[in-house]
Amino acid sequence: MNDLKREDFEVKKLGKATILSPIYKNYKEAAPDKEYIDDSRRIIYDASLDAFNSAKSSEEEPISFLKAGARKDIYFDPSKTKAAIVTCGGLCPGINNVIRGLVNGLYYRYNVKNIWGIQYGYQGFISDYGHEMVKLTPNVVKDIHLFGGTILGSSRGRQDISAMVDTLERENINILFTIGGDGTLSGNHVIQQEIERRGLKIATAGIPKTIDNDVNFMTKTFGFDTAFTTAASIVRDAHNEATGAYNGVAIVKLMGRDSGFIAANAALAMPDVNFVLIPESKFDMYGPKGFLNELKKRVDERHHALVVVAEGAGQHLFEEGDEVLDKSGNVKHKDIGVYLKDEINKFFADENMEATVKYIDPSYIIRSEVAIPADSVFCNDLALNAVHGAMAGFTDFVVGRWHNQFTYLPIPVATASRKKIDIDGPLWWSVLETTGQPINMYNE
Ligand SMILES: Nc1ncnc2c1ncn2[C@@H]1O[C@H](COP(=O)(O)OP(=O)(O)OP(=O)(O)O)[C@@H](O)[C@H]1O
Ligand SMILES: O=P(O)(O)OC[C@H]1O[C@](O)(CO)[C@@H](O)[C@@H]1O
């Protein structure tokens, strides 16, 4: 549970917004009767009614979220505004759509024409790496949604915060958009603190990126729909592999460092799956009611079985040892897919049972996919709302979607903890029902 209070949900602002937004002028002319968003517009939720534990404040009081959208008055003068965009961490479908949406939103809606891309993540702020900033215009980004990945490149690894803010200052950047996961957003927050310490008026806005869908107070993050849609078709093909052999077992490993949302949703979309293993639930492997024996029962009955495993699942099965970390300090999980394949092979050999085990790891293929249409639309909306918020002078915020509304949330609230599957909640119970996997395979 988060130890968050109501006041933690207040989004910071650089100062009073005093410039009449160009959108407002045009919008008023085009549709004078339409409502316009006032700064104080907030969406109030009764947290005690919320299905997500993570939505509760520590005091169980209603939490209010700042509603995203265009403001009548803006903080930055568009003709004098310079914006920069950076993408960090792992790839995710839709990053290029977000970049495109940011550039077009700034350029066409607000008339901000001085837009730059920082190359290869936070490295791009550090001159030693030699990554030049690239000028972004609608013409440069017009086709980038047709490609997966990020046209700006990405990276992991800590950079010197002071040196990064030196670059922002030297380049006279007024708004920084960071597209990235938990780490990128934490980095954004630290950058913002240094900006404040120096008394600079630079707005920072985060667009949360993770196929794992594990960001707090976000119904979903961009790229997640594409990820599990792509995963579902791979799971279907794996099912064909499993059924194509007598006692065929197919294992598909999907991403999900701490949360099993991709695995759970792919299995719901493709109900041929017999077992879903996720990080949120420690399963028993070897006991009489453990995974291997349950798998055997399934194979005995139908002569094939399909297993979907999230990369962070089953880590308790490995011997404790030195943790391997990536450049950013994230734990690199031991390969549960290979472990399952080996253990299943051994188990069936010990049982004198013929079995054909196929292991499929499509992780990077899924992550670098092009966004499906639903995600493309979502990316564009997120980007536009990030532009609205930053132009209004909000800072240190992330844009997201929660309870069918686009919202602005202070970064520390979004990064306070990770969203996980509630194993007593409806999503996991649907998975158990769909797969038919026994509930007592789980220790906890
Ligand atoms: N607390 C922090 N302070 C400063 N920089 C940070 C912090 N946490 C992470 N970063 C930096 O943010 C960048 C991205 O972090 P990271 O590699 O963890 O990816 P991420 O944004 O979490 O995305 P993914 O979900 O794909 O892992 C890296 O350059 C990392 O060093
Ligand atoms: O191989 P990389 O680039 O370190 O990324 C792997 C990580 O990326 C994620 O998809 C998060 O973006 C995790 O699920 C996974 O652990």
From TrEMBL:
Superkingdom of the source species: Bacteria
Chief localisation class: cytoplasm
Catalytic activity: beta-D-fructose 6-phosphate + ATP = beta-D-fructose 1,6-bisphosphate + ADP + H(+); beta-D-fructose 6-phosphate + diphosphate = beta-D-fructose 1,6-bisphosphate + phosphate + H(+)
Keyword Kinase: yes
Keywords linked to the UniProt accession: ATP-binding, Cytoplasm, Glycolysis, Kinase, Magnesium, Metal-binding, Nucleotide-binding, Transferase
Annotated localization: Cytoplasm
Stored Pfam families: PFK
Binding site for Mg(2+): 182
GO biological process: fructose 6-phosphate metabolic process
Active site: 212 (proton acceptor)
Enzyme Commission numbers on file: 2.7.1.11
Cofactors demanded by this protein: Mg(2+)
Site (Important for substrate specificity): 183
Subunit structure: Homodimer.
Similarity comment: Belongs to the phosphofructokinase type A (PFKA) family. PPi-dependent PFK group II subfamily. Atypical ATP-dependent clade 'X' sub-subfamily.
This protein's name: ATP-dependent 6-phosphofructokinase
Species this protein is from: Flammeovirga agarivorans
Native organism taxonomy: Bacteria, Pseudomonadati, Bacteroidota, Cytophagia, Cytophagales
